C-alpha cells in the first residue's frame, strides 16, 4: 500500500507520528473501491466504480502498472454464477461495440500489430467462455506435459504462464476459473462449505492472462470476522464494513476489470505501458 503523507521524514517521530499528518491518521492510496462500493450496492442494488487504482507491489512486467484504471461493478442479490454471467456478458458486449464502431482501427491492428486479431475477437463474442474449477485447472496443467517455470501444485497462485496455457492452448478462448483455495485469496471472499475454497472467479483471456478477478462476498458476520482475524486485520478499523453484516445482509458479488488489460486484449498490444498515456511503474514516474 502506498502511504499518503504531508509529513517530512524528520517529523515522523513519537508513538503516533500520523496524528499531526494531513488526515490525522495513517492513510494510503486505494487498490480498490470495492469495500465502499459494497455499501452502495446494498443500498441501491447495482453500482459500479471506474477510476485509478494503485499497486505498490514491485511487478515490472508487460502486464503490470503501479497506477492503472479499473472498472468495478458490485451487485446485491447476486451469487457467483450471476457474477460470472455478468462479467462474461460485459466483455463480449464491450468487444462487440468496438467491432461495430472501430472496425477500421481493429483491421489496422490486425494487419500491423497482431495477426489474426479480428478472428480472435469474433471468436470471443461468438462462443461462451469455458468454465472450470481451480482444481480442474491444476489437474489439466499437471497433465499438459509442459515444463513450466513455476511447477504447478494445488494451493499455489496461478502464474501468467499457467493462465495463458489454459486459455490459449487448452481452451482456445477465454476461461473462467472458480473456487480458488481460500489461503491465496482475500478475506472478503465467501468461504465454501468445504472450508478450503472460496467463491472466487478469474477470467483469463489469450495473450494477457487474467483480465477480470471477482467473487461472491462473505455475507456471514461470524465467518467474515474469523477470516479478518486470520489475516491480522484490526476489526475496529473495519467496523463500518462489518456493520453491513451485523445489521443484516444479502448475498452479493462483484468483480474488477483492468481497463488497460482490456485495451491490450482488444488491440493486440503486448506491453501494457503502450496502452496508457502516462505509464507509472516501479522505479519510473516521469510525469
UniProtKB/TrEMBL annotation:
<dbReference type="InterPro" id="IPR045864">
    <property type="entry name" value="aa-tRNA-synth_II/BPL/LPL"/>
</dbReference>
<dbReference type="InterPro" id="IPR002312">
    <property type="entry name" value="Asp/Asn-tRNA-synth_IIb"/>
</dbReference>
<dbReference type="GO" id="GO:0004816">
    <property type="term" value="F:asparagine-tRNA ligase activity"/>
</dbReference>
<keyword id="KW-0067">ATP-binding</keyword>
<dbReference type="GO" id="GO:0006421">
    <property type="term" value="P:asparaginyl-tRNA aminoacylation"/>
</dbReference>
<protein>
    <recommendedName>
        <fullName>Asparagine--tRNA ligase</fullName>
        <ecNumber>6.1.1.22</ecNumber>
    </recommendedName>
</protein>
<dbReference type="InterPro" id="IPR004522">
    <property type="entry name" value="Asn-tRNA-ligase"/>
</dbReference>
<dbReference type="InterPro" id="IPR004364">
    <property type="entry name" value="Aa-tRNA-synt_II"/>
</dbReference>
<keyword id="KW-0648">Protein biosynthesis</keyword>
<dbReference type="Pfam" id="PF00152">
    <property type="entry name" value="tRNA-synt_2"/>
</dbReference>
<feature type="domain" description="Aminoacyl-transfer RNA synthetases class-II family profile">
    <location>
        <begin position="46"/>
        <end position="277"/>
    </location>
</feature>
<dbReference type="GO" id="GO:0005524">
    <property type="term" value="F:ATP binding"/>
</dbReference>
<dbReference type="InterPro" id="IPR006195">
    <property type="entry name" value="aa-tRNA-synth_II"/>
</dbReference>
<keyword id="KW-0547">Nucleotide-binding</keyword>
<comment type="similarity">
    <text>Belongs to the class-II aminoacyl-tRNA synthetase family.</text>
</comment>
<keyword id="KW-0030">Aminoacyl-tRNA synthetase</keyword>
<keyword id="KW-0436">Ligase</keyword>
